[in-house]
Design a protein that fits this description.
The structure holds two protein chains of two kinds. By secondary structure, chain A is α+β, with helices and mostly antiparallel strands. Chain A contains four helices and three strands; from the N terminus they run αβββααα. Chain A starts with a helix and ends with a helix. The longest helix of chain B is centred in the last third of the chain and has 23 residues. The chains are: A alpha+beta, B alpha/beta. Chain A: It holds the Pfam family NifU_N.
Chain lengths: 138, 334
């Protein structure tokens, strides 16, 4: 039953993704690519005083990548760069150690049943990580 | 029916551990059906295919848990149209497939899998019986499988409670190519791609040596006039293509007294009828297993297209013979 709910939530994110091709004035952007699945994604962030004021993504990617990017855009908007990095670290460690996600991230629990899609789900977050490192450097 | 036994056998090593992935149930239009097997080694390399999409990569990742815990694992991919859109595993619209992952190790005698492969190499048949766990019982379930050289239910499967999946085990199709001319190359190589056992024959050593066949092709120096029906017992099909009328006739005479299920004759109908007449027979008497002009009529003229048409016809003949005998059916024994 829960699996179906996660699936429905992911599908909803895929079909109406938050942040997809959202028009922002980016302070930093980065490209991500998953050669196994062919996902191509570009993540852009706008920032003010170390806070993410806007985030968007675009590119050709599978449904899981897109849904995960949508969840990411909902989660990290208005976070500081430190908080955003903590969110990314949580995502990465949860997938690595198979620790269930809670609350707004819970649709990602559906990915545990399909480990081949784990990298698809991680890609937007890893691309955001690259963005944040640029932002810090600039 | 499992077609890639030779490929699996070539990969299998009794000193190593594997995970055997078995389709135990399907619904809808899935690529493969219940009884199909795939072997996964500890390097996540898969031998065989269970689906046409990304399922293999996902299964290989699930197999890691089986390698580490040595428990069976039951995977249920129930993909409605929406779910397939989301996960993109290529099962097809409204497809559902249940896969059982079994640990094969030296400690559990690879669950008789080595016995199965040895039997295949000896070109014998049998059935592989796999005990099926109920959903939710996988962790406490002891993996069990039995290979039986007979088609009746083995004692353990008959006396124990629970369900058993019975999978037919039939050796790879074995083809004798009679004549090592250049047109034998695409035929032999394509037959190898099919997972078949291929032996090319010619009386000319130079002809056999000159042609660069795939290493998996056997080569035998044989004169048509010395061929004997007992020799052909190991073959399901023979393709007569020496391009020499006398040699072809001699091979045909031998093959007609053999148990070969498919005798393909290169050349037009008139040549076929002439050869049969010369050996004192006629086409009507052997129509169920003599095929000439050889190959399905698919309209190609190149050696590759002809090879394709011949192998398609062999496949068709072998499948129809197996279907009649019902030996190709996997089923669940309660």
């Amino acid at each position: 039953m829960q699996t179906t709910l996660y699936q429905q939530a992911l599908l909803s994110h895929h079909q109406n993704p938050t942040g997809f091709q959202h028009n922002i004035k980016p302070s930093a952007e980065s490209d991500g690519y998953n050669p196994a699945c062919g996902d191509e994604i570009t993540v852009k962030i706008s920032t003010e005083k170390n806070t993410i004021t806007g985030i968007s993504f675009e590119g050709e990617s599978c449904a899981i990548c897109r849904a995960s990017a949508s969840i990411m855009c909902q989660q990290v908007s208005s976070l500081s760069d430190v908080q955003a990095k903590e969110s990314i670290a949580l995502i990465e460690s949860s997938f690595a150690q198979k620790v269930p996600f809670a609350e707004a991230l819970s649709p990602l629990n559906g990915v545990f049943d399909f480990p081949v899609r784990q990298q698809c789900a991680l890609l937007p977050w890893q691309t955001l990580k690259q963005c944040l490192s640029q932002f810090k450097n600039s | 029916m499992q077609e890639n036994w030779l490929e699996i056998s070539a990969q299998f090593n009794t000193r190593e551990r594997y995970v055997l992935a078995v389709i135990i149930n399907t619904q809808g239009a899935t690529y493969r059906k219940a009884g199909t097997l795939m072997l996964i080694n500890e390097r996540q390399q898969c031998t065989g295919l269970l689906s046409g999409g990304c399922l293999e990569a996902d299964i290989a990742l699930h197999a890691q848990a089986v390698f580490s815990e040595q428990n069976v694992k039951l995977l249920e991919y129930d993909l409605t149209a929406d779910a397939d859109l989301l996960w993109g595993l290529g099962l097809g619209c409204e497809g559902a497939i249940d896969i059982l992952l079994l640990p094969l190790s030296p400690e559990n005698n690879h669950l008789d899998f080595n016995v199965l492969l040895t039997t295949i190499e000896q070109r014998k048949q049998g059935r592989y019986w796999i005990s099926l766990p109920e959903k939710g019982e996988e962790l406490a379930f002891l993996a069990k499988a039995i290979f039986s050289g007979q088609h009746k239910v083995p004692k353990e499967a008959n006396t124990s409670s629970g369900r058993w999946l019975s999978i037919p085990v039939t050796p790879a199709i074995s083809v004798a190519i009679l004549g090592a001319g250049p047109d034998a190359i695409p035929l032999a190589n394509m037959a190898i791609q099919m997972g078949w056992q291929v032996t090319v024959h010619d009386h000319r050593e130079n002809a056999l040596a000159a042609i660069d066949f795939d290493l998996a092709v056997n080569k035998v120096k044989l004169r048509a006039e010395n061929s004997q029906s007992g020799y052909f017992k190991q073959f399901n099909a023979a393709i007569v293509m020496t391009h020499n009328l006398s040699f072809d006739q001699q091979y045909l005479a031998t093959l007609l007294t053999s148990e070969v299920s498919y005798i393909g004759l290169l050349g037009p109908k008139a040549r076929r009828d002439k050869m049969l007449e010369t050996v004192g027979s006629n086409y009507a008497s052997h129509a169920e297993r003599v095929f000439g002009p050889v190959g399905l009529n698919i309209g190609g003229r190149s050696p590759q297209a002809i090879a394709l048409s011949i192998l398609a016809e062999v496949q068709q003949q072998m499948s129809s013979l197996l279907s009649v005998s019902q030996l190709d059916m996997a089923y669940v024994q309660q």
